[in-house]
Amino acid sequence: MFRLNLKIAWRNLWKNKGYTLINILGLSIGMASCILIFIFIRYQLSFDENFKNESRIYRVITSWTAPDSFFESPGTAKPLPPAMRNDFRQQFDKVAAIQGGGGIIKVKDALGKEGIKTAEDVHYAEPDFFEIFNFKWLEGNPRQSLSQPNTVVLSDEMANKLFGDWHKAVGQSISFKNELELKVTGIIEKTPENSSFPLKIIISYKTFEKQAGPSLTNWSSVSSSSECYVLLKDGVSIEDVNKSIPQFINKYYQKGNISKEGHRFQPLRDIHYNEALGNFANKVISKKELYGLAIIGVFLLLTACINFINLATAQAVSRSKEVGVRKVMGSLRRQLIIQFLTETLIITVLSLLLGCVLTEVALPGMQSLFKDHISFSIIEHPIILVFILVLVIVVSFLAGFYPAMVMSGYSPALAIKNKITANAAGLSLRKILVVVQFAITIMLIIGTLVVLRQMRYLREKPLGFVPTAVALIDVPSDSMAITRYHTLQDQLNKVPGVLSSSYCSAAPSSDFNDEYNFKYNSTVQANFQANTKTGDENYFKTFGLEIIAGKGLAKSDTVKDFVVNETLLKKLNVVNYNEAIGKTIRVRGKTGIIVGVVKDFNNKSLHEPISPIILNSDKESYTTIAIKLDRKSILPAMQAIEKTWNKLLPEYVYGSNFMDDKISSYYQTEKIMGALFKVFAGVIIFISFIGLFGLISFVATQRTREVAIRKVLGASTIELVKMLNGSFLLMVFIANLVAWPLAYLFVSKWLATFSYRIDVNVWPFISAMIISMTITLITVSIRSYRAAVANTIDALKYE
């Protein structure tokens, strides 16, 4: 029976090749988009899922609460891990510290000469870290390999890079930061790409403790690169642990601070999805984005299914005789439903095959957009096959069930007499579906226009400094490098195309934002924290910062003068900025005089407001030299800068990036959103309008005689086109009215995530209406015109 149904279904589909092609094309594009979205979401949801005790692993988060602010960091004070290990021994199986860092790695060749010199990220980890996280050890074990100072464990990939073969690495030595000789004592398997812990070089934590000095006991100093992880004991809930946190805070933290410290525990599976806290891999995507992608995928599939339903129900009248004959011959309604669902299944399977091809074609583009490895391997990820099978069943049911019910329900007597007509309910449903389909399309058009406008606003908004043509070069901060700072800067300033240069801890806008309590005018304890930055006397000139009161920083290697921004003085209720000049500030244990006020500049992304900022000079905290370049000679200047660097600092590795690129990286998520909206809005527009073309083609065919009679009675071609177009334009107009409030809610909520944003005005909505109405008019008019100019004799010769 199934073979017979298949044969009949194939004949019917072949008979209506045009409509079959439209359905396959629409469904295949929709299914390909859904598959792409699914494999991307599957990849993102797979982060950190393979650790044995993932449900019991937490990261300790530090927070500071002030009267008008709240700030969180993934970092912890360095004495916290041993304190928690002691105070929470009844609740935690393991507590481990891990510290991020970086430096120059050198390896000598067989002759004792320098063979490899490379700048790499490193991590200092306690042995317990590898008992919390079950990384695969190829050689060694955490208790033996990381228990002593000056020992290091490598990933097999890094060991291959440094020694050619990881099997030969254990027992060898590497030089780190030109200061330490580290012995390789273990090898771990390369961490997968879907991990928040890209561990390649793991140095024993005791090595870090030897270098850290007083900070090991300092509870007020917190760096975001100092993280702590805990493993709960079986049967212990995190709520039980949280009850003991206030007691822990009272025991170890100084009382009376304006900003109150606090701690919470972040689940391991939340680390990849928390944009505010980040992770060592710098791979973060919010679950809101994943939900948004999933909704777009549903919209795409729904649009394709609506196409199918509209065309199938429109064709139903033309197949009434077939239904009547089959019923007279004894077919049951159930058998007819199965027959029509079989046709839908064939179209869905053909669409799936084409969709898989389209997925493979589009996959490199999606990998490039997200900069992630996205695999379409069913063998590697069987869940993809499950999704595809579910997709076929769902699409077949959604697209085929209603048309099958309509066609199988025809009266055989009326069907054989050819007296079946499109009932009002069927027409109404088609109109509703067209309205829904175009409402979805219009919402995406509006969303795309708003996202693109906001992105343009972010690119063009003045930031309070000039990021253009500023190169940022990381500088080493060891004692040997510091002695060469002045020589290096003098030589770089002589390079043709270099306008100015400045040593600093961070650029005006940076990922590195340290917040500290401070005292103003000696005695006034501020009720908020300030963002601190260090830079030399050329900092303001190099970045184009404007001094609006007093002067900039004087040439000095130590903390002596301070410059503050407008926001800090406003929060201190200082109206006349000149009154602040000469007042003292004490921050980070150092006291100095305010010598100037800098005009407000954005120190973070435009998602966030401007912070209160304190700037000063401090040679020991410099990590970067910023170089302002002449735009006309950037390339030769950068080549000369690298040459000068290698001449003066041959022991170190040169690396640079541009301020523009750093600013741009803040909005990577928005860029991706903009690209996705453009692509998927285009896809939905295409699906909608090929469906619209198929529908108007069928309507024109059904009304051929009516058009011919009207033409004989004197109707003009324009009048006939207007008659055929009218209902479609009305439906698209109604779709705009439906889409506008929904789109407004969406874009308003999205824009609310930015502290600086465009105003939502009427133009994106008007533009979406013009675009949708214009494309509808063109699409429908092409087919309507063909029907209107057809030879009337062909339509009426048998009447």
Q: What is the topological layout?
A:
Elements: H1 2-15, H2 17-45, E1 57-66, E2 69-73, H3 80-87, E3 92-108, E4 114-125, H4 129-132, E5 137-139, H5 142-145, E6 151-155, H6 156-163, E7 173-176, E8 180-188, E9 201-204, H7 205-212, E10 226-232, H8 238-242, H9 245-252, E11 260-267, H10 287-315, H11 320-328, H12 333-370, H13 382-408, H14 412-416, H15 424-460, E12 470-474, H16 479-482, H17 485-493, E13 498-504, E14 514-516, E15 518-520, E16 524-525, E17 530-534, H18 539-543, E18 547-550, E19 561-565, H19 566-571, E20 584-587, E21 590-598, E22 613-616, E23 624-629, H20 634-648, E24 656-658, H21 659-665, H22 668-702, H23 704-712, H24 717-751, H25 763-788, H26 792-796
Parallel strand pairs: 4-9, 6-8, 17-22, 19-21
Antiparallel strand pairs: 1-2, 1-10, 1-11, 3-4, 3-7, 3-10, 5-8, 6-9, 7-8, 12-23, 12-24, 13-23, 14-17, 15-16, 15-20, 18-21, 19-22, 20-21
Helix pairs in contact: 1-12, 2-10, 2-12, 2-13, 2-22, 10-13, 10-15, 10-22, 12-13, 15-22, 15-24, 15-25, 17-20, 22-25, 24-25
